[in-house]
Amino acid sequence: MESGIGIRMKNRFKNGKIIHKINYKKVFYFLFFAIIVISSIPNISTPKISLSPKFSIRTDYIFHFLEYLFLVLSFLLWKIEEHNKIKKIYFVFVFLFFVTFAFLEEIHQKIIPGRVCNPIDFLYDCIGVVSAIFFIVIRLSKNHD
């Protein structure tokens, strides 16, 4: 019987072609360094979607949520793949590490010309972190039932 959470892909053949498993470690490092590099670019404008003359949505909040969601998902999937399970206390460590990273990234942006430290950005980062952890916990609990 295969252990894990059912999301990972193993090398196998399908219709005569090899399907490769996702290398979560590489995805994690790519996202981690992409966040650092992009947050270091000065004078990035804040993209908005205007739904009416009086109402617009800042799309950077969506990006903040998604980047931390996928960052933490890739990290957790990488660790699950290595160890086939994760202890509950590990989720606390992951939460504290990535929330601290998000906070430091917001502080880092304060020293970049044309960038600001925005607590709402930090909030969306944290929501992404919590959502990723919640998703993995649910997937793990479904696989153990």
Radius of gyration, Cα only, in angstroms?
A: 18 Å
Give the tally of β-strands: 4
Element-by-element helix/strand order: EEHEEHHH
Estimate the helix proportion, in percent: 55-70%
Question: What does this entry look like structurally?
Answer:
With 145 residues, the chain is mainly alpha-helical. It contains four helices and four strands. It has helices at 24-39, 59-83, 88-110, 119-143; strands at 12-14, 17-19, 48-52, 55-58. The strands form two sheets. It has a two-stranded antiparallel sheet with strand order 1-2. It has a two-stranded antiparallel sheet with strand order 3-4. α3 runs antiparallel to α4 (119-143). It starts with 11 loop residues before the first strand and ends with a helix. Residues 1-13 have low confidence and may be disordered.
